[in-house]
Amino acid sequence: SWFYFRGENDWYRARPVHPRPEPLLSVEGNSWLMKTSPDEEWLLFQTEVPDTYWDINLVRFDGSVHRKLTDSDALYRYLTLSPDKSWIYYSSVTIGVHDLYRMRWDGTDRQLIATDVDDLVFLGWSSDAEWMIIASDLDRQAYIFRIHVDTGSYEQLGFDRLSYELAHVSPDGEWIVYVTEFQHEIVQMRVNGRDRRVVLGDGIYNFI
Question: Which residue, 68, 108, 125, 166, is most buried by CB atoms nearer than 10 A?
Answer without folding.
Answer: 125
